[in-house]
Amino acid sequence: MGKDQSEMSKFVRSTTSKYKFGAHISGAGGISNSVTNAYKVGCNAFAMFLKSPRKWVSPAYSKDEIEKFKENCKKCNYNPLTDVLPHGQYFINLANPDEEKAQKAYDSFIDDLSRCEQLGIGLYNLHPGSSLKGDHESQLKQLASYLNKAIKETKFVKVVLENMAGTGNLIGSNLKDLKYVIDLIEDKDRIGVCVDTCHTFAAGYDIGTKEAYEKFWKQFDEIIGYQYLKGIHLNDSKAPLGANRDLHEVLGEGFLGLEVFRLISHDEHLQGLPIILETPQPTDEGYGDEVNLLEWLETVSIPEDEELTKKSKELQEKGSKSRKDQIAKYDAKQKKGTKRSKPDSNNDIAAHLSKQKKVSKKE
């Protein structure tokens, strides 16, 4: 009901959901296949890699493949400017203090952005990288410099920086890192942020209850601003709160549980954004089941709902062994004296933000 009927699959795409629920989809055999693969599992938005995530250099798209991608988007009713959020290669690190390696990363990055514009895609998701052994603030400035350069060399694609799960030298586990970089971007219309639920939780920002969820988004708005929110990655977390481990889990089976995803399915701030599943599914069909779950959660108005309670219990039982194993690993790490960094521990970034607020008040 309220869905486009499709002979291609058991999954059908919702025409009534207020949210663009989708998933990271395979583009094997040609980038145009990502469109039809997304449609087959009922996605209202989707992500994919623009080229092999395991190679620095990949063959250019053929003219025919570019046209086929655009035709498939029209046929399946996806707007590539707003409904597609491709993921950059994981090994791109524009903050690398090694100049030669940073330049190699930039070459791959600008190639990705060019591919987006060839396909008419308006958003591009990027892990912001790591400062490694360099000075953290200096490497944030370098990252922003490369972003400014790339924006000038391209026409319209918006770079969407993802928040991260780790701490220390990894950029973006502290929201203030992302704010610092955004402040240095010359064309603010070409920069945005993607919030990953697993990364958020792993970095120490609790979002598992209504109160905690609302507190996080209040922080996000105060530090970064809702105007920069351009996408969501939906993942439960195999690891506990603040474990600083990027371990995605199937919705409901991890430490977050179903309630946060019910809250997301009722959050008006997220309407119109690509909301992308990256859970560990063996095939794209598994994403179809999770898209259906999210669209069902959209109809569940209270956390005490009987069917929701039953579903939550089933999923938590399914993931119980994995959670116990991760708790044991986390406890062992704590005993060895590994301290968990707090999200607001970077004093240099905090000082920068304080300065920015003073400048704003003067203006």
Automatic annotation (TrEMBL):
One of its GO terms (molecular function) is DNA binding. It comes from the Eukaryota. Keywords: DNA damage, DNA repair, Hydrolase, Metal-binding, Zinc. Residues 307-363 are annotated as: Disordered. InterPro entries: AP_endonuc_2, AP_endonuc_F2_Zn_BS, Xyl_isomerase-like_sf, Xyl_isomerase-like_TIM-brl. This is Apurinic-apyrimidinic endonuclease 1. Residues 37-294 form the Xylose isomerase-like TIM barrel domain. GO terms for biological process: base-excision repair. It holds the Pfam family AP_endonuc_2.
